[in-house]
Design goal:
It is a single chain. The protein is globular, with a radius of gyration of 16 Å. Strand 4 and strand 5 form a beta hairpin. The chain has a five-stranded antiparallel β-sheet, sandwiched between helices. The chain contains three helices and five strands. The two termini are 26 Å apart. Helices cover 30% and strands 27% of the residues. By secondary structure, the protein is of the alpha+beta class. The structure holds ligand GNR and nickel (II) ion. Ligand GNR binds next to strand 1, strand 3 and helix 2. The site of ligand GNR has 17 residues, from strand 1, strand 3 and helix 2.
């Protein structure tokens, strides 16, 4: 079991720009398995290190419905984007809110895999959307940043209020 917790908007730590991973070692692989554990338990289709307050450029994802397609992306970089697609997005760091976001439909991405090998991958569909959402996290960006200021403030106020009420229950 991991004791890592998911940070929630508007926590300023979610705005940190993550640093490049220098070495893919056993400690990092242990951290990746913690990320999978948290992501599957949530449940979610992706989780960036930034969301658990670890500011390294890596994320995990699995867009299958039966945990059959786990992928890790270390030092990911988008090489090419094509087309546009609109998806109803959610985020484990913005619990309970779903809004339409426009992103590239096809994405060519380069990254290191769990063995530190460089990989290039052509993606589309939900995986391409998820990759763009997670790379945004590594740059301190959230899907609510694509919404209007008014919508973002409304979500922020509701989340802050909810958290205050939760804190009151614990006391
Ligand atoms: O679980 C998640 N679902 C999702 C749906 C549409 C677009 C992006 C996502 S990612 C999200 C998990 C998460 O917050 N990853 O950072
Ligand atoms: Ni997210």
């Amino acid at each position: 079991m991991t004791k890592l917790k998911i940070l929630e908007f508007p926590d300023p730590r979610l705005r940190t720009k993550a640093a490049l991973v220098e070495e893919v070692d056993d400690e990092l692989r242990k951290f990746m398995s913690d990320l999978f554990e948290i992501m599957y338990a949530a449940p979610g289709i992706g989780l960036a290190a930034t969301q658990v307050d670890v500011h390294k450029r890596l994320f995990v994802c699995d867009v299958s419905t039966d945990k059959s397609a786990p992928l890790v992306f270390i030092n990911p970089e988008i090489l090419e984007k094509e087309g546009t697609t609109v998806t109803d997005e959610g985020c484990l760091s913005v619990p309970g809110y779903y809004e339409e976001v426009e992103r590239a439909e096809h994405v060519k991405v380069q990254f290191l895999d769990r063995d530190g090998e460089s990989v290039e991958m052509q993606t589309d569909g939900l995986l391409a959307v998820c990759i763009q959402h997670e790379i945004d996290h590594l740059n301190g960006k959230l899907f609510v940043d694509y919404l209007s200021e008014a919508k973002r403030q409304r979500i922020r106020k509701k989340l802050v209020k909810e958290r205050r009420q939760q804190a009151a229950v614990v006391l």
